[in-house]
Amino acid sequence: MSAELLQRARSGDRDAFAALVEPHRSELQLHCYRMLGSLQDAEDTLQEALLSAWMGLEGFEARSSFRTWLYRIATNRCLNALRASTRKPVAAAPLAVPPPEPSRLGEVLWLQPYPDHLLDGLPDQNPGPEARYESHEAISLAFITAVQLLPPNQRAVLLLRDVLGYRAAEAADLLGLTESAVTSALKRARATIQATRSPGRPAPAPGSQEERALTDRFVTAFTDHDVTALVALMTDDVWVRMPPLPFEYRGTESAHRFFTAIDAHRRTISRLIPTRANGHPAWGEYFRDPVTGVLHCAGILVAAFSADGVSELTHFETTLAPYFGLPHTLT
């Protein structure tokens, strides 16, 4: 951080402040996303945090790095958002056909995917020595979903300690807690996260030959409308989800019932446009208007893989298509 830039920013130079913040903006947005589980909420909260930093710049005493100071503000803004109220009801378009009985009703209905291209701009910041998660695991949908089930303080502690690698004393200082409170919260958070993790062999590496082969087989089965072939690619404990609708299906038998029930609707999907989300293969789903022939975006489909096949399949609504560079219509 340049002392000259800091002095100019403190003198009211917004361009200097923007130059100070810009190297950290993408990682701060990702941190807010991990805290909140929603890309749109993360963007809004980050803007509030940066405004707070701008207004309170005189309070930065350089006892920690400017990056850590920004993390303090962003984390506490996220905590304020989580504590202020319960999640607002999420409006969701009903399914075109009645779904079968779900395995359960999901709790994280606000979950949104995170475009991989936003991860490309992250600075080369190695996590601290306390980090337990590699970057690809800490952005996966399974991890983000599990984190959303933690109470706010446990959520913040887990992310600061096990993802960003801050030491216990540093995390305590960031959150205004005692070290013992941080240690206790971390122990409980780790136990909750561990209970949600599925044992098994590691997933294929992103972009690997194994991932490409499974992706090709999945796309073929999906576009051929072959339910049997599609389900055959799934693990025995696969999850099928569709936030903000609450219905969740666990296991191949439930998945087969679901895809059979919506088969007529699924056959309207005539094109998949590849993208990536949360480190997973993803696609924009498009259906063709029978009158105009125009292709309309029907949603974003994200597939998480394990070494044994498709372990999660999550359908998201169309609102986030522009973040992935996916147009609402194609000719």
UniProtKB/TrEMBL annotation:
It holds the Pfam family Sigma70_r2. GO terms for molecular function: DNA binding; sigma factor activity. Residues 142-192 form the RNA polymerase sigma factor 70 region 4 type domain. InterPro entries: NTF2-like_dom_sf, RNA_pol_sigma-70-like, RNA_pol_sigma-70_dom, RNA_pol_sigma-G_actinobac, RNA_pol_sigma70_r2, RNA_pol_sigma70_r4_t2, RNA_pol_sigma_r2, RNA_pol_sigma_r3/r4-like. SUPFAM superfamilies: NTF2-like, Sigma2 domain of RNA polymerase sigma factors, Sigma3 and sigma4 domains of RNA polymerase sigma factors. Residues 20-87 form the RNA polymerase sigma-70 region domain. It comes from the Bacteria. GO terms for biological process: DNA-templated transcription initiation. Residues 192-211 are annotated as: Disordered. Keywords: Sigma factor, Transcription, Transcription regulation. The keyword Acetylation does not apply. Interacts transiently with the RNA polymerase catalytic core formed by RpoA, RpoB, RpoC and RpoZ (2 alpha, 1 beta, 1 beta' and 1 omega subunit) to form the RNA polymerase holoenzyme that can initiate transcription. Belongs to the sigma-70 factor family. ECF subfamily. This is RNA polymerase sigma factor. It comes from Planotetraspora thailandica. The gene is rpoE_8.
